[in-house]
Hints:
The chain has 151 residues and is an all-alpha fold. It is built from three helices and no strands. It folds into two domains: 55 residues, no CATH class; 66 residues, no CATH class. Helix 1 packs across helix 2. The chain is elongated and about 70 Å long.
Amino acid sequence: xxxxxxxxxxxxxxxxxxxxxxxxxxxxxxxxxxxxxxxxxxxxxxxxxxxxxxxxxxxxxxxxxxxxxxxxxxxxxxxxxxxxxxxxxxxxxxxxxxxxxxxxxxxxxxxxxxxxxxxxxxxxxxxxxxxxxxxxxxxxxxxxxxxxxxx
Length: 151
């Protein structure tokens, strides 16, 4: 069975997401125009690429800007979800891919869901778990290798 990977560029499918982002842009603009930050910014610049006139735009115009610029922060996760197969999982707790003998996954794609923090810390924990497993396998295999060399 081939796992189904949901395309992660399906941004803003729910209209409420767009308006949350527009409200977020408005909040950031209020912060940028409030002291003490406002004194350090040039709000008179008319360069379009710097968005200094964004506070003059309508919500609809800001929504268009959001549509043009929304993207991942390049930390996609959860495409090979670790969970029981019956629950849509792709890998088990030992990082084995269901249905593919000998193949394991050890990256952010195993997260059951997207975490709210930075993925680096969780990845280091995943790698430690995988390393511990690998180390135990190597230690277990050493006596066997020694016995094979004697014969």
